[in-house]
Structures are given as C-alpha cells and as structure tokens.
Amino acid sequence: MSDHSPSPFGTFAQRLSILTSPAAGDVLARGLRGIEKESLRVTLDGSLAMTPHPRVFGSALTHPSLTTDYSEALMELITPAERDPRETLARLDELHRLVYSALDGEMLWTCSMPGKLPEDDQIPIAEYGASNIGRLKHVYRHGLALRYGRTMQCIAGIHYNYSLNDETWRLLHAAEPSPATAVDYQSARYLALIRNFRRTNWLLMYLFGASPALYKPFLRGRPHTLEAFDADTLYRPYATSLRMSDLGYSNTTGQAALRPDYETLSGYLDALARAVSEPYAPYEAIGTHRDGEWVQINTNVLQIENEFYSTIRPKRVAGSGERPLHALAARGVQYVEVRCLDIDPFEPSGIALETARFLDAYLLLCALDDSPPLPAAAYAEANANFGRVTLEGRKPGLLLTRDGGDISLEDWAAELVDGIEQAARALDALAGGDAHVRAVAAQRAKLADPETTPSARVLRAMRERGQGFLAFGLAQSEAHAAHFRARPLDIASAQEAAATAARSLEEQAELERRDAGSSFDAFVADFRGYTLERFSV
C-alpha cells in the first residue's frame, strides 16, 4: 500500500504477526462492524412516498435502529455493532423484514440513485418533533436543502462502521514504544487507516460501485457528460458509481477548499472546527431566517461537522447532547465510518456477506500497513483517482496516478489484493474455514473480468431486459419486497420490535415535555457557542 519501503507490505506483515501470535489470542476476531443502510420509501410505481415516516416504526428521533436521514421518505436502518459479519447481516435482514411488515402500498427503493422525484421543493424534509434537538435536526436539513438542493439528498448508500478491539492497539503500542498515550496511539493508528483508505478507496468503487446509470430528470437540467441509454436514462459506458462522482456526492463550493488534516487528531479537529465556525459568503447571503423561521443553523462553511461529505470519517460514540468533535477530542477515535458504498441492487439487504468479509480484510490492511502523510498534492491525487474510477473505472487500460507517476488500475489493484489476501488468511485462521479468502478471490475475479462487477451487471441487465433505469430499479425493488414479505418476523421478534417503537415514542414525548416553553433561539445559540468555545483556533 505504501511505496516508501522496499516491501509493499513489510510493516503490515510484522504487525500482523504480533496480532496472530499465541500471546494475542483471538484479538483480531473481537473487532466490531455495524451497518447503516439508507433506502427511499417509494410507491408501487417507483415515485417517492409523500407519506410521513410510519408511526408504527416509532420515533425517528429516538429509535435505535429505524430512523430517517434527509427526507421523511429516506429511511435509515441501523444494525448493532457485531463481532461476526454474519450477525451484522442477520440484523440487517431482520430490520428489512420488520419494515416490510408495516409498509402498505410502498416499498424500499433498491438503488442508490433515486427513481421518480417530485419537484425539488416538494421533497419532504424529515421531521423530528417539537423538542429542541428535534427542531435542530429539521433546521439542519432545511439548510442542506438551501445549500445543495433536496434532490441530491435523496441519493442513498451504505455506511460500514468498523473497529478493531482496543487490545489490538495495546499490543501494537507495546511493540512500538512511543511517548504517546494509549488513546493518542489508537487515534494515530485509525488516522493511518484513513490515509491508506483515502489513497486506495478507488478500489471499492471498481469492485462494488453499482450506479452506472440514472433517471434523467434527477439532473434537473444540469449540464453533464453522460450518454443517453434510452429516452429517460443517462449513463457512462465504463462508470462504476455516478453516486460518488461529481454528479452525486461531490464537494460543493462551500466545501471545496476544506481539506482535513489526517496526520494528527488535533489537526483534523482544528480543520473541522474552523469549517463549522467560519462564515461563507453565499450562505451569509441566505441568512438563518426567512419570515421569522429558522432555515439553517448558521451561515458557516459547515452547519455541523456531519455536513462534510467524505468517503470515510473517524468516529467516537457521543454522549447525549455531545457534539461529535467534542467526543473525538475528549476520548479519541473509536472506529471509522466507511461512507462510499453503493447499495447493491442485486442483494435484498443492499450488501452481500462476501462484501463485508472483503471490507474487513481490506480495512485491516489499511489499519496495519505503513501510512505516509497525505499532503495537499497526495490528497488531490487520491481524489482524482477516485473520481476517475467512478466515471470510467471499467475502461480497458485505465491509468491511475501513484506518487506522481502513471500506473494501470489493474496492476495497482493486483498489488492491493495480494495484501488484502494476507489479512484474509489471518482472519480465516482465527474463524476457521476459508470464507475471507474466498471473498477476496471473488473480488480478484472482478479484476480479471470487469463484466462481473455490479456496475457492469446493472447495465447488462438493463440491456437484456430492455429496461431503462427506472424499470430496472422498480423490478429489483419489487423482487426484494417479495423476498422480505415472504419471511415475516416471528411473534417474539415482532413483539420486541413493537415495544422498542413504543419506548422511542415515549422518549420523544419526554424530550418534548422537558423542552416545553423553552427558547429554541437560546438552544441554538448554546449549540453554536459551545462549538466556538471548545474549539477556538
């Protein structure tokens, strides 16, 4: 992964040997992974559902597993963090079955790019009730609408949360003595993971990108370089993920100059703190109020830190009312959130177990390998490679740039997969069997034959069935809806789900009782002032 040592995976192999030694036990098997999956609720013709978030699912504000993202119609299904990816996927399957037990005349859209949307200003923004935090979440989303448009916020994806057990870092820290505290060492290693990920995440776009086409009205007349697939479908012949290209989640004007420092946690925090504290002229022109109502939290580059669109984030579980930046500053990095995965339209749950196992091996390589700094030139190079693969990743002979020189995607990918296979073998040695190695072999096969990638399969299915993007998405969504509806939850699971939903509604009601009569303006002022006070730079 690093070209700054004689052997590409020398240090990685040394660290891996420490973690697979008898003294380490099963430490590598004790890492956690969880999934957050976004899905639009749509009507039976593929149009965006205009109904509120179903009350039977409980409160979108306080429910631990079922919430909404940007829109009332954009559901988010959140699994617990599990040691075994099989358990993670089983929890995701259960959540889908729960959702389908209550959706009447609606289903979940199974593609990352949306189908039929109403006019931009008619897309319903998520509501979270009358509590101060609920109102803040709504105002934040209103601000996103003004900054980026509501249409872009209807793009959906998979977030993969990954952590290694804390004992992993203790063992490595003991073998690599440094004056850093245990917390600082762990944070530094997670930032090293992020730097390696940013350099090589184009590989995930090639292997798992599944959005090579989109419904033409999505662009709202914006200029583009796409080709016509049919009257209503646009695509790029070799694209892997239009969602992650500059047509989807790209850095917008306000974020264009924002380059977080991934060398140190303090540097990262300072960069994000500046972004949530510094005004941006076009947003100042919008203001925070219209007709006496709040329309955005502030006029800064970012309203809050989560507005930063990144393919990966360092994370720490925050306490009630605690800002993400404060949690990181106080207790260090706990896990990473991988944010660039498309929904797999061929998998009912949106992600295959094989994909999760490959990700575990890939992220382990990113975590343990040498990780040189990522200065401005390297950051720009990494972004350019990523963008190139989103738009033309399957193009024969595609060249990427590594350390300023050309290298073929095929050659670089082969090197990376060799390292990922080492990680997979270590994970299989602990778990027994060869599931991780087989997952890596499946991805290696995609490098040998680009036609087996999800993006190529989408285009092939559309051609063979004579479908445009909308018809393809509708057919896949219908098939997956039938898959889940044929396997309803057992009575005990359904009762537990109903109890969880009821508790979440009670928690929201309690928040609203507590905030009754309090000033929302004062709440927002405290929220904004707290950020500036803690992170004066």
UniProtKB/TrEMBL annotation:
The keyword Secreted does not apply. It catalyses: L-cysteine + L-glutamate + ATP = gamma-L-glutamyl-L-cysteine + ADP + phosphate + H(+). Its EC number is 6.3.2.2. One of its GO terms (biological process) is glutathione biosynthetic process. Keywords: ATP-binding, Glutathione biosynthesis, Ligase, Nucleotide-binding. GO terms for cellular component: cytosol. Residues 18-389 form the Glutamate--cysteine ligase domain. Pathway: Sulfur metabolism; glutathione biosynthesis; glutathione from L-cysteine and L-glutamate: step 1/2. Gene3D superfamilies: 3.30.590.20. InterPro entries: Gln_synth/guanido_kin_cat_dom, Glu_cys_ligase, Glut_cys_ligase. GO terms for molecular function: ATP binding; glutamate-cysteine ligase activity; metal ion binding. NCBIfam families: glu_cys_ligase (TIGR01434). Belongs to the glutamate--cysteine ligase type 1 family. Type 1 subfamily. This is Glutamate--cysteine ligase.
